[in-house]
Amino acid sequence: MTEPPADEADQAVDHPARDQSAADHPVRDHAAPDHLARDHAARDHAAPDHPAANAPDHPAANAVNHNAANHSADHRVPDHRDDPDPGRPVDPDVDYGAVDSLIDFDLAVRVARGLMRPGPQITAAQAREVVAELREDAVQSTGHVASVTGLRARPGDGVLVVDRPAWARANTDAFRTILAPAVSEALKSRPATNPAVMAVGRKTTGGEVGALLSFLGSRVLGQFDIAGGAPDNGQGRLLLVAPNIVQVERQLGVDPGDFRLWVCLHEETHRVQFAATPWLREHMLGRSRTLVTSLLGHPGELIERVTEAARSLPAILRGGGDVSVLDLVQTPQQREDLARITAVMSLLEGHADVVMDEVGPQVIPSVAEIRDRFTRRRQGVGMADKLLRRLLGLDAKMRQYRDGAIFVRGVVKDVGMDGFNAVWTSPETLPLPTEILDPRAWVRRVHG
Question: What is the pLDDT along the chain (448 residues), one digit of tens a residue?
C-alpha cells in the first residue's frame, strides 16, 4: 500500500461541522466495486456498469465536497441493497467469519466517516472537472511512466477516483482480506471465549480502526491497494482521493493541473509496477499475511494480539519501523520479515518518487516548485501532528521515499534503467534490507 510524498495533507484545514447536504460522494465509476459507494447516497439510476457515470458532466462524478448552495446539483438516490453486503470483495477461498467475529469492520467505516472532516468547499461543476482531470491524468501518466522506466501496463485499468469515506471503506476491506486467513487459522486452536467479551472486543477494535482511518483519510492523496478489487483480477486497484488532492494543492498554492499530474505520476507508477510484475502482488500479500500470522502470537492471547495487529496494520503495509509495530515484533524471524517488507516498500516508493521527478518540466512545468513547497510544508507541521505521524509510521514512510530513491538512482547510475529493471524478475532479485542503502551490493549480487 502506498502514499507518495504528495500524499499527506499533514495539517488538514479546519472546517465547520459537516453539512450533510454537502457531504463527500465517491465516484460512481463503471469499474468501481459497489462497496466504494455503498455507504453514500451518491448512486445513479443507471445499471451498475453504466458508462454515463464516467462522463465528466455526470453528477455522480462529484468526489469532492461542494457548497450547500449547489445542493440542487447533488444527484442522490437510495443505496442498492439487493444482497446483505453489496459489492464487498469476497474471496471464496478465505474464511471471513473468524476475523468478522473479532473486528466490526462496518463500525470502523461508520466511525471513520463520523470523525472525518469535510473536504474543501467546491462547486459541483468544479468537482466534476477535478474528477475528470484526475482520470485523464492517470491515463496520461501511464505513458510517462513507460518512457522513464520501460515498464508497460494498459492505461486506466483499476483506477478509481474516490472521496474520504470511500477510501476508508476500501481500506477496511483490505485489512479484512489480509487478516482473515491468519485469524481463521489462529482460531482453530484458541480456547473458547466468553461471547460477551468477544462482542465488546469486536466493537472496541472496530472503533479504534475507524479512528485510525479517520486520521489517515484526510491525509492520503493516493494509494495503490494491493488487496483490493475482485479476487480474480490479480492486480489490485489505484485509489485517488479527490478532496485531499484539492485541499493540498490549495494549501501549497501551486498550479492545480501540474500538482494533480504530479500526484498521478507517483501513484500510477505503483499501479504499473504491479501490473507489469504479475508475481509481485501475491508476493507482498503473502509476506504481509505471514507477518500478521506470526504477530498474532499464542492462541490464548488472540483477541489482544488481533487488536494490536489491526491498529498496526497500516504501518505494517507501509513497511514502517514505528513504535507500534516494534511493540509487536518480538522474535528474530519477525524482525527479518518486517525488514524484508520494509526493503520492498522502500524500493516501490523510491522508484515512484524518482519517476515523478524524472518526467521533468517539459511535462510538469512547475515540478521543481511543487517538490520544494511540499518538502518545506512537511517540515513545518506541529508537534502533535509529528507525534501522530511517528506513531502511525508516517515518518518511517518518509525514510522509505528517501532511501528507496537513493537505491534506484544508485543502481541506474551503475547499470542503467534496463539493468535496474532486473529487480522485477523474481522475489530473489528484490533488494535485501542491507542493499537499500548499498545499491552496489545489489548490483554485485544480481549482475555479478
Answer: 334 333 333 333 333 233 333 334 433 333 333 333 333 333 233 333 332 333 333 323 334 444 333 332 332 222 222 222 334 555 666 778 888 988 999 999 999 999 998 889 999 999 999 999 999 999 999 999 999 999 999 998 889 999 999 999 999 998 898 888 888 877 776 666 778 888 888 999 899 899 989 988 988 999 999 887 655 555 789 999 999 999 999 999 999 999 999 999 999 999 999 999 999 999 998 888 888 877 776 545 545 655 665 665 555 445 444 444 445 556 777 778 888 988 999 999 999 989 988 888 889 999 999 988 987 766 555 544 554 455 445 455 566 678 899 999 999 999 999 999 999 999 999 999 999 999 999 999 999 8
How large is the angle between the packed helices 439-447 and 394-420, nearest 10 degrees? 40
Chain position carrying cell 517539459: 362
The interaxial angle of helices 124-149 and 256-276, nearest 10 deg, is 50
